[in-house]
Structure formats: C-alpha cells, structure tokens
Amino acid sequence: MSDPIAPKPTAAPPLDLDDEAPRDVGMAEMDKDGTLRLHLRTELPDGTVGEAMLIVPPKDDRYPGMLAHLAGMKPGEQRPIPPFPEPVIDPDSV
C-alpha cells in the first residue's frame, strides 16, 4: 500500500533538442594540490569537434575566476563544466 502523504514521482522534463546551448563544455577535476584540469570539448552543428586540456594551477591569475565558475571545487573532485558566459565585446575595440 502506498503512503498517501509521500510525493508522487515526477518525470524529468523532456530534453529540448532544438536548444543548441551545451549543457556542459567538458569535465573538470582538481588535483590534491588544487590544480584544476579542464578537459574541454565542443561540437558544432556541422560536425566539427574541438577538444582542449587547460591546466590552471592555484598561482595562475585565472584561478579564482575558474574556481568560482566551478562552484568551489575541492581537491579530488570531478564535475561537469557549465558553459562559460558569452564575452562582452566593445564594438569600438574591434
């Protein structure tokens, strides 16, 4: 007999296959010393694939921003990398 108070399970919302925004852009892992290893990957609609590995040690100027983007990872953790925001380009600088 089911519990009348327990919430009923709900199905996950359907994937929007027309949405071209990636759900993640790769995987990140943090070494014991805090170094971030970003395994980046993208696929374009024409089938082009790009992959890169970015290693960011704690002394790197980009480190605080990367760590904030990854929601404060801890050593030994791995997690998907959320998409980075589109850069704001000043049209007068181009």
What's the SSE blueprint?
Blueprint: E1 26-30, E2 36-43, E3 49-56, H1 63-69, E4 78-80
Task: Provide an overview of this structure.
The chain is mostly beta strands and 94 residues long. It has a domain at 26-77. Helix content is 7%, strand content 26%. It has one helix spanning 63-69; strands spanning 26-30, 36-43, 49-56, 78-80. The radius of gyration is 19 Å and the shape is globular. The protein starts with 25 loop residues before the first strand and ends in a 14-residue tail after the last strand. Residues 6-18 have low confidence and may be disordered.
Measured by DSSP, the beta-strand proportion falls in 25-35%
Q: What is the 3D shape? A: globular
Radius of gyration equals 19 Å
Tell me about the largest β-sheet.
4 strands, antiparallel
N-to-C CA distance: 68 Å
Q: Structural class, from helix and strand content?
A: mainly beta
Mean pLDDT: 81
Number of helices: 1
Oligomeric state of the chains present here: single chain
- What is the N-to-C succession of helices and strands? EEEHE
**Order of the strands making up the biggest sheet:** 3-2-1-4
Q: Tell how many strands the DSSP assignment holds.
A: 4
Poorly predicted regions:
6-18
Q: In percent, how helical is the residue content?
A: under 10%
How would you concisely characterize the structure shown here?
It contains one helix and four strands. The chain has one helix at 63-69, and strands at residues 26-30, 36-43, 49-56, 78-80.
List keywords for this structure.
94 residues; mainly beta
